[in-house]
Design goal:
70 residues, alpha+beta, Alpha-Beta Plaits, four-stranded antiparallel β-sheet, 2 helices, 4 strands, globular
Length: 70
């Protein structure tokens, strides 16, 4: 399911560029039309045009990270 809502998560265990690329790649693999914006300084992941919050969180969790609603 695709929508125009922006989802935001804080991912405290995202610490480097590799983490950011891993999360971005996983989200885009599941939702090719998504727009992913990551701020490593604040550890915030913002995603537009993806699935519902729980489904997107599950994609991030599957990569070994712990997203929390932001």
């Amino acid at each position: 399911m695709s929508n125009d809502q922006t989802l935001a998560f804080t991912v405290s265990d995202m610490t480097c560029g590799h983490c950011a690329r891993t999360i971005t790649g996983a989200v885009l693999a599941a939702y090719p039309a998504a727009k992913v914006d990551i701020d490593l300084t604040t550890k915030r992941v913002s995603i537009e045009n993806a699935g519902d919050r729980a489904a997107v969180a599950s994609v991030i969790e599957a990569e070994g990270y712990a997203p929390v609603d932001a």
